[in-house]
Model the fold of this input.
Amino acid sequence: MVIATALYRGSHLVAGGAVVAQHQRDRLFPWLALGAAIAFTALIWFMAARHRRLVPWAVGLDVLVIGCLLPFGAYAWGGARAQESIAWVMLLGGSASAMAAVAFGARLLVVAVALLVATHLAGYLMVEADAAVTGAHLNALVFSAVVSWVLTWYLCRQGEQVDAANRRTLAAEAQRARFAERVAHHNALHDTVLATLTAIARGGVDANTSVMRERCAREAAYLRRLVEQADDRESASGVRAALEESVRAAEALGLRVTARFHEPPAVPGEIALAMARAATEALNNVRCHAGTGHAFLTAAGDSGRLIVTVVDRGRGFDTGAAGSKRSAASQGSIGSQGSVGPERSGGPARPATGGIGLDRSVYARMRGVGGRAFVDSAPGEGVRVELRWPG
Done:
């Protein structure tokens, strides 16, 4: 409607300019009146572009000056004594009425239209215009406001209906996603926790063996994560689901993982998958090289950034010694604290064992999606792998 009323006013200015250039070019006031109309129109559309809507005070000023006062000025100083000479000034009132219908509420619109009708009726009476001309102009003045108001109402109503339909669609998609997630959890519980409990209840296994205790600990950790996820925001369910797969894959190979999800932000699917695969490699390194059977995984958000950390309390390694074992061709790709990039030339922060896995499956993977990876370690202090997106 902002664009429509702009075009409407533009057509009136073009018509007014043609009349002034052809019939009133010898008089100063018609040119001043046309310039004032152009200036007020520019003000209205400047404010509209800035606020993305017609600003009521600017439109109200246009109604008072251009719509109501300009006809009397044309009569008093512009020599407009006939309906033909004042008609182009009256024409601007129609576009002022249309803009008022878009910018004002119902009560203020009625006041603006009544004021325009009264002043334009007085203007045509002063020049003794024909009744038919006066009636046609006042009819156009009123219906310019009516048509603009109806179109504005209709478009707003259609927009509300589209928004409501989108909300219903999103709610239905969310409900389907929750149902699919529940089904997946039910299947996982059937295949893990329920199977373990059934085997113990039937006496088919010895619950006191170390293998069974480790299995129960893994499945208890899985149940704990399910409970915690029920309280998390749903916007990051893709991140949680991808990382949960990494955790379950590591647990299936005998590693106990304590996972925590602290409202991670929603990210594109390919980013969530890349982070999960990098986390999987970090967990594999814990299982193969750390000398401990327990790892900690945390996913959180920080100012829109997704941060995933994998920590162990294993044997750790000397990052400087590990860096000295790398070939010169790979120097500089990983900083001394394991950051992706040439921040420092002290060598990489990764163990000599499993280094190719870190290079290809962690650092390179994070670089490929615009993220970064950091590794911090010391002998006897364990290893901390941090994945960040965006980098």
About this structure: The beta strands are 256-262, 294-302, 305-312, 372-377, 383-389. The chain has twelve helices and five strands.
